[in-house]
Amino acid sequence: MKHWLLLLCCLSSLCQADGAVWRVSKAGSQLYLGGTLHLLSKADYPLPDGFDQAYQNAAKVVLETDIRLMQEPAFMQQIMALMTLPAGQSLADKLSPATFTKLHDYLQAHGMQAKPLMGYKAAMLALILTKLEMQKLGLDQLGVDSHYLLKASEDGKALGFLETPEQQMGYLADMGAGQEDELVLYTLEDMQSLPDMLTKLRHAWREADIKALEKEGIQPMLESHPALYTSLLKARNDNWLPQLVKMLQDKEVELVLVGALHLVGPDGLLAQLAARGYQLEKL
């Protein structure tokens, strides 16, 4: 399940690089497009130089969604409702006996009980388990997007968003629908290889290694969950592309920050922009 784990975050490193940031331009208009990680560790700061360079040159910061709204109590209640199964349903009934046994054993080994979690959708369970593991690995700092949202607010820079918080949570809530057993099983299996896998993905992000990001993040998703790839990545890329093109038609210079996997692969934003004749310059 490497695909959506990178959407959450990646392990950090002390190495320095310019980072996954590109200058996109054509006919005198430009914007900066950066790939982000949503959770970081202390070792990730300061961020790669390319991010600050792009931020300083931009008049506006555009993020996937307004993270501030997602932290409000009212919206948190909406999220819980969205991630909770309808009354009378239990996640246990959607899992095979073998998968439920593995889940039960995993939770018990980590001091948790299965029963309180059975009212959640498989996506919520996967996110809970993954976030707990991330915290154990030291990923408890603001991600790239949160960092620049805060900085832009403090500096008085204009802000923009590619989708609403409701849209973003809707994508996550639908993750694994109809494939609950597979999602939970893969999540449990990935917990074992998480440190090594995240190290590879973190290095690929920091070095802006497009081929490695595609290999470690895109290909596993296409092989195991093609429908999830379509809904979480391709469909959203296709929705965002017209917005990027519109930005490239104005005089304002934007810094657009999206999850790193949205940039790479044949359906990634970089490939789609290049196909439309835009010049891409790695910072």
Textual characterization of the structure:
This protein is an alpha/beta fold. It has twelve helices and eight strands. It has helices spanning 2-8, 49-57, 67-70, 73-82, 97-109, 122-136, 144-155, 165-173, 180-206, 210-224, 226-247, 269-275; strands at 21-26, 29-36, 39-40, 60-63, 141-142, 158-161, 254-259, 279-282. The chain is globular, with a radius of gyration of 19 Å. The two termini are 30 Å apart. Residues 1-17 have low confidence and may be disordered.
Q: What topology emerges from the helices and strands here?
A:
Layout: H1 2-8, E1 21-26, E2 29-36, E3 39-40, H2 49-57, E4 60-63, H3 67-70, H4 73-82, H5 97-109, H6 122-136, E5 141-142, H7 144-155, E6 158-161, H8 165-173, H9 180-206, H10 210-224, H11 226-247, E7 254-259, H12 269-275, E8 279-282
Parallel strand pairs: 2-7, 4-6, 4-7
Antiparallel strand pairs: 1-2, 1-8, 3-5
Helix pairs in contact: 1-10, 5-9, 6-9, 9-10, 10-11
